[in-house]
Predict the structure.
Amino acid sequence: EWECPVVDETTMMCSRDGIFFGGDSAFGPKNIIWAVAHGHEAAISIHKYCNKEDLQDRLPRGVNLVSQKMGMHEWSFSNDYDGASRRLMPHVDLKKRFKKLDIEVELGFSAEQAIEEVERCLNCDIQTVFTTKLCIECDACIDICPVNCLTITEDGEEQELRTRLSAPAENLEQDLYVSDGLPHTGRVMVKDEDLCVHCSLCAERCPTGAWDMQKSEILLPYAHDEADPEKSNVAKIAGA
């Protein structure tokens, strides 16, 4: 298109042999995170290209999960749930702004206010992990969930199942997390990830440890992993 090289999204090599690039020039406006990722992928491809290896033959990506439990009700991350609304940033009074047009409008938060806002973090790297065989269907996790993202119900077709959840799952693009049949009744535990705030209250309340909070680490292979796969932790975990 427009007589520009076309870039392969996996290898970062363009339609001109031996030329690699990424970022905005390859795929249009994105952010710096994507640009760095493209650089790593290109580095792998350049290494393979120079060694006359197949550019498509790449190490798989992996995910490592580690429990964050430190005690019966203790976690290695801050998990206090507070339903308070987001704090609004204080601003300079409008009259003062007109008197001095180059004044900084946002006053910022105090140290105490900033700490409170940080506590609102949803802990996106902490995943809820459910072990079906440990569940006794006591409903404790469902009772304590502040956003009604959990449901124990009979299994069924997804479209119909969505209507029977504690909070109807209307975002069809978000898959539901559905367990295997629970040991006592054969019903299933359903979680709507769209609603979950990773507060860990379900894991704290669960008397059998069926719910756990585990830190997820996404493992992406870099050029040095491809150069020596036998020493690569990414390769070991992904292949496990």
